[in-house]
Write a structure and sequence with these properties.
single chain; OB fold (Dihydrolipoamide Acetyltransferase, E2P); 420 residues; 13 helices; alpha/beta; six-stranded mixed sheet; pyruvate-formate lyase- activating enzyme; 3 domains; six-stranded parallel sheet; Rossmann fold
Length: 420
């Protein structure tokens, strides 16, 4: 039996793809191992979102033992010319992982990067977390952001069939899954190519039997704004995590326009305010790019003002890096010192706000889902409350258990609970 080792970079969509590739290979008789040294072949599921991520990928590739290698994911799709000596598996070809592995083990170099419009649901998988089901609901997006290289890897919108999504959830719930993560490059555009919408899909999911919670993955404001009133009602459902990942990227309209983001700062404010009016405690996560071309100090200060006003629970802070083959790469670029300085200012501001943001949870009592292990040696477990806030508790629980806790302490990133 040949043994395969996987390395996964990037987003939850990549994690889902790796789970599927591992499941397909295991079904075909391959063994999945935990180290490169144990393996006969190595698969790297790659990410192209940032220059830093790509540099990490090539450092990792260089450090690997001399064994047959398959590169899957976004770098294989967008930059095959950078990988002349390994097999390549494109983002829409993961169902062909067995063929590529077989041929590569025989000494052949295989390139499968042609775009295919396959659905990829209800395939075998090996879950990274045994109580979390990650389901891609669509591939690609409808945007044309000037900074984004992922579009070249994931293409235009292809929504997966609603019934196939529902069937995968039913199967997962029957297997004991407690958290359903809906993921894609932009969940907000789900269904627009097949006569459906995200609210319709969510309503059908929430009508399914079983004890589970749904976490909606990242969606862009330009389409969330079209049905934010419907979404606000849906988020009140007891099976929905009160959590939304909605990237603002910048707090100045001229910068947003240069990014081709197709919404204004005012429209973003309206989305958040409508959600908080219905669910005051909802967790709002966002993304911000520091140092985008043309952004002035005054415009960046507007972004800082937005952070102060909206009090985000989570901010994914990125230093802008010009990605090859993107429109923004041709724009006049800031030097690294300016970009690093803006990133530092935003990070310091956000970290100064976090304690007061989390302070409101002191004294809260309720059920959490235990979904991960704490730091080694701490005898702690990690859970999520109904707003997807991370709760640290002491004790020896099984993943999927749902204890009642009382929050007794908070810090910048976690709540700490006593089990009741």
């Amino acid at each position: 039996m040949h043994k395969i080792f996987f390395i996964t970079q990037g987003c939850s969509n990549n994690v889902a793809d790796t789970e599927t590739m591992q499941g397909i290979l295991q079904k075909e008789g391959y063994g999945i191992v935990q180290t490169a040294e144990q393996a006969d072949l190595i698969v790297i599921n790659s990410c192209t979102v940032k220059n830093a991520t790509e540099k990490d990928f090539f450092r990792c590739l260089k450090a690997l033992p001399k064994k047959p290698i398959v590169i899957a994911g976004c770098i294989a799709q967008t930059d095959p010319e950078k990988l002349p000596e390994v097999s390549l598996l494109g983002t829409t070809q993961i169902n062909n992982i067995t063929y590529v592995v077989e041929q590569t083990l025989q000494g052949n170099r295989i390139i499968l990067t042609k775009k295919e419009n396959n659905q990829r649901l209800n395939l075998p998988k090996i879950r990274k977390n045994p109580i979390i089901e990650i389901i891609p609901i669509n591939r690609g997006c409808l945007g044309s952001c000037t900074f984004c290289k992922t579009k070249a890897a994931r293409f235009n919108l292809l929504s997966f069939e609603t019934e196939a999504i529902l069937q995968q959830i039913k199967t997962a719930v029957n297997q004991g899954i407690k958290e359903i993560w809906l993921t894609s490059q932009d969940t907000a555009v789900y269904g627009l190519d097949i006569g459906c919408t995200l609210p319709i899909l969510l309503q059908k999911i929430l009508a399914l039997d079983g004890t589970f919670m749904v976490r909606l993955g990242m969606g862009n404001p330009d389409h969330f704004k079209l049905y934010i009133n419907e979404l606000a009602e849906i988020f009140r459902h007891p099976k929905m995590f009160k959590f939304l990942h909605i990237p603002i990227q910048a707090g100045n309209n001229a910068v947003l326009n240069a990014m081709k983001r197709n919404y204004t700062k005012e429209e973003f404010f309206e989305i958040v305010q409508k959600l908080r009016k219905k669910i005051s405690e909802i967790t709002i996560a966002t993304d911000i790019i520091c140092g985008f071309p043309y952004e002035t100090d005054e415009q960046f200060n507007e972004t800082l003002d937005v952070v102060k006003q909206l009090q985000f629970d989570v901010i994914n802070i990125s230093r802008y890096s010009a990605r090859p083959k993107t429109l923004a790469a041709a724009f006049p670029q800031h030097n690294g010192r300016i970009i690093a300085g803006r990133s530092k200012r935003l990070t310091q501001l956000f970290e100064s706000l976090l304690p007061s943001i989390n302070q409101k949870w002191i004294g809260w009592q309720g059920i959490i889902i235990i979904d991960d292990y704490g730091k080694k040696g701490t005898q702690t477990m990690l859970g999520r409350n109904y707003t997807y806030k991370q709760v640290v508790v002491k004790g020896d629980f099984k993943l999927g258990e749902m204890p009642k806790v009382k929050i007794v302490k908070v810090d910048e990133y976690s709540l700490y609970g006593d089990v009741l």
